[in-house]
Write a structure and sequence with these properties.
2 copies of one chain form a homodimer. Chain A is of the alpha+beta class. Chain A is built from 5 helices and 6 strands. In chain A, strands 1-2-4-5-6-3 form a 6-stranded antiparallel sheet, with helices on one face. Chain A binds a DNA duplex through helix 1, helix 3 and helix 4.
DNA sequence: TGTTATTTATGAGCAGGTCATAAAAACAAA
DNA sequence: TTTGTTTTTATGACCTGCTCATAAATAACA
């Protein structure tokens, strides 16, 4: 292996390792990849990977924040529909695998459904979920969400998530708004 | 207010504030409660509340671990049913409120459903969710889960969650096992 | 008034970094 | 073999958000 390929291979591995376990410190990564801590830091900055503490905070905010992750919003029409790109890099996965848990997909869908009706807080009455295909950590997903019906403060919102044009996940929520966000 | 009551009141408030938002640093807490940072630190150690970074890590680990929270398991019969007590103290809530998010309830239910069929990893095909009543952070919930049907590796599992005898949440999962855990 | 609980301040030390800089090593091409 | 370039490693100053120990200031109460 030439110098450049070695570097590339290592950086790829770095991404995988941190993707698998964001709770690895530079020192631990250095041991794993058998290079110096300085190299790990260099690689991280080249790859735009944040430091240990910030990664941890991201994961925590993700799970605890009030607003909820709606991904990168490409299109959005309040009370109508929207399109988002979801990055599954820090979604919860099953032990020793890269398979994203249903609960992570559900959380995405719920966040999107709430966002499209501008609900800071809403009671979900019913949720019907269909998992069509296995999602893996790192998959780049496109979510389309749409308000299908409104009656009083009762909404029906659909969320459909695709990867490479093929549908992975579908959800239908019946929501009743209790508290609208000022626009 | 005497000296001791003032202290007690402040410490109670401290617990509430951190409970509501674990992402508060001592400096921010000091401003909120209008005391010095030193006092906050003293209060924290007296109350056994861990420091900012450790709190964040706790939240992150909680959300990122592969196993999933199944609460305190009171009764459990593999492939049949079980009963758990769920502590909602660190469930995700809506902004500025104590209302537990649907996604937190869903995650509990999914974890329970997976545990009862001994599935380290499983594909959920369908989930039907009914939210009957609002759950608040701190509510002590009792969850009963039961395998209703099995055919090949296809399971139907029900999860019902109650608080004080009244039903709060109901879920039905259709799961297909892909990887059984050794017993 | 002094005594005592409570609060605040100060300084050293730690983990896990950033950033800038420099030296060393590895390799490719002349 | 020597030179040039990339890649890796090392070093030191600085940062945040703490802990821990110690001391000083403030306030409550008898």
């Amino acid at each position: 292996m030439g110098r450049a390929e070695k570097k590339r291979a290592r950086q790829e591995r770095l991404v995988r390792e941190i993707g698998k376990n964001p709770f690895l410190k530079d020192e631990e990564l250095a041991k794993k990849l058998k290079v110096s801590v300085a190299t790990i830091r260099l690689d991280r900055t080249e790859l735009g990977i944040r430091e240990y503490r910030e990664r941890i905070r991201d994961v925590a905010e993700h799970s605890a924040d009030g607003t909820g992750d709606c991904g990168e919003v490409l299109d959005f029409n309040l009370f109508h529909d929207g399109i988002s790109i979801l990055n599954t890099l820090d979604a919860a996965v099953f032990e020793d695998s890269t398979v994203v848990k249903g609960q992570a997909m559900y959380a995405y869908a719920e966040n999107l459904a709430l966002s499209v009706i501008n609900a800071k807080s809403a009671l979900i009455r019913v949720a019907n979920i269909k998992y069509l295909r296995e999602v893996n950590r790192g998959d780049r997903l496109v979510a389309k969400y749409e308000v299908m019906r409104v009656k009083n403060s009762e909404y029906v919102v659909w969320v459909r998530i695709k990867k490479d044009m093929s549908e992975m996940f579908r959800a239908k929520f019946n929501l009743s708004v209790t508290d609208e966000r000022e626009i």
